[in-house]
Structures are given as C-alpha cells and as structure tokens.
Amino acid sequence: MRIDLHTHSVNSDGTDHPQELMVRAVAAGLDVVALTDHDTTSGWAGATAAVEELPMRLVRGAEITCSHRGVSVHLLAYLFDPASESLQTMMTRSRHSRDDRARTMVELLSRDMDVSWEDVRAVAEPGATIGRPHVADALVLRGIVPDRSAAFTELLHQDSPYYVPYWAPAAIEVIAAVVAAGGVPVLAHPLARARGEVLDLADFERLAESGLMGMEVDHREHTPAQRKLLTQWCTERGLLRTGSSDYHGAGKPNQLGENLTSEEVLNQIVACASQPVVGRG
Ligand code: AMP
Ligand code: ZN
Ligand code: FE
Ligand code: FE
User: Fold this and answer.
1) What pTM does this model have?
2) 158 CB under 6 A from ligand 1?
3) How far apart are CA 168 and CA 146, in angstroms?
C-alpha cells in the first residue's frame, strides 16, 4: 500500500484544486492520500466528492500552525470532527492573522519593489489560507524573482526585513482540541531547521505528554541521521512514525509519494480516530 499523509491544495498554498489533487494521487500510484491544507477544512468537500469516483481513499486532515515556547510548529491533524468549534475558532483566527500579516509584508515589500496586494489576490484562490507562498507567487508574477524558492531565499525567509509573524494557537491547546474532536495529532517535519528554529527533545516530550500521537519522520527536509533519531524516539515512546511528501503542486519540488507511511501506522491512526477514511479505493 502506498500511503502519503501530507498534501496541500489551492485551498491553502498548493496549486492543484482538491479534485485535481485526488486525480494526481491516483496517477502517482497512491492508494491512500491525506489532504492537509494549512488551517482549513475547506477542501474536504471537493476531495471527498472526487474520491467517490476514483480508486483512492482519502484521509481528511489539516496542517495547523501552532506555537510552542515562541517557536512556530506545524501540527498535522487527521480524521477529526470538522464541526469542532474550538478547532474552527483557532483556525479562523489564524487565517485572519495570516491575511493581515501578508498585507503587511506586501506593504513593506512595495516600498522597495513593484508589487501590490492586488498581485497576491490575483495568484490566490478566493478563500484560500494565505501564506508566504502566495506572496512569493505575486513576486514571480511581477518578474521580481524566477520562482517560489528564490522568493523565499531572497526576500521571504524568517530573518528577512520583510518577514512578519502571525498569530497561532499554543501547540498544547491544539493537540488537546484535536484529540477532543476525535482526531489524531502528528507533529509535521519536527526537525526541518531550514524553516527556522525547531523544538528540542524535551519539548517533544512535553507535547507527547499533552497527547501528541505521532511524528512525521520521513520528510524531505530531514536527513538520514534525523530520521534515525526520530524513529528511535518514537519507538521508545510508542508514538506513530509517519512519512509524507508535503506536496504543494507546481509550487515546490516535492512529488506525491516521495515519502510514505506504512499500512500498519495508518491502521493505528484509523483505530484512534472517530471519523472514517472515505472513498471506494
Ligand atoms: P507561512 O505559513 O505563510 O509562514 O509560509 C510557510 C509555508 O511556506 C510552508 O508551509 C511551506 O509550504 C512554504 N515554504 C517554506 N519555505 C519554502 C521555500 N524555501 N520554498 C517554497 N515554499 C516554502
Ligand atoms: Zn504550505
Ligand atoms: Fe508544514
Ligand atoms: Fe505542509
């Protein structure tokens, strides 16, 4: 079984519509795919409808931006009840803060180059969770940089004068809310240092005590040594070890299925969750 548990659609900062993403997942030879847009469940309906017609099973999820000790972390949440008021309230607040923050970043950039909020609106799907990748696409549209990667390296990285942070809920609160909503919380790319500061092992311990159920070990931004360390850490504590592509469509080099999760781990996720995997596949 080929199982990829981390992908993004145009409902956040990916470039495929949810339906299109499900078709591509079939073409990539996957049997199970998770849709995990940033801070939203708005892509669930389209993806669910698509897998009814495809040999594919869908794990509905989200990648929720959180903060722990001032460090920004991403939490993958699988198979939770989308009616959860606490989760939806936190994600709505994050999305509003992301919008304000992107406007501020564009305002700062526009003092030095020819880019405007209209350009961001032109590259983002209406209602999408706005992130730096959209600002990057606006800079590409304006011919200021050749691609998203260059935009990040040159202008949008965390130490850039144009970088602005945004509000995110506390990781411990999000973990509790995911569990209360019948979902399974897994820490995304825990050691991906290129994105900025990461948590240490004591922090991971604290999150595990708070209900964290797994770690995304196999991710392109982890070295073999980091994967080994995290695998051992998960094994010792009985946490689930996942692997995924973090596919964003044309915006990033990540390819569907480039890292995979075992069938055994998927079964454990399903056994812990209140919501079903959907699709006929
Ligand atoms: P934000 O949440 O708005 O701060 O943006 C972070 C998102 O940007 C991440 O979830 C990644 O999808 C994306 N990202 C981070 N670094 C890069 C990069 N070097 N190139 C392309 N996309 C990136
Ligand atoms: Zn993203
Ligand atoms: Fe992430
Ligand atoms: Fe992601």
Assistant:
1) 0.97
2) no
3) 30
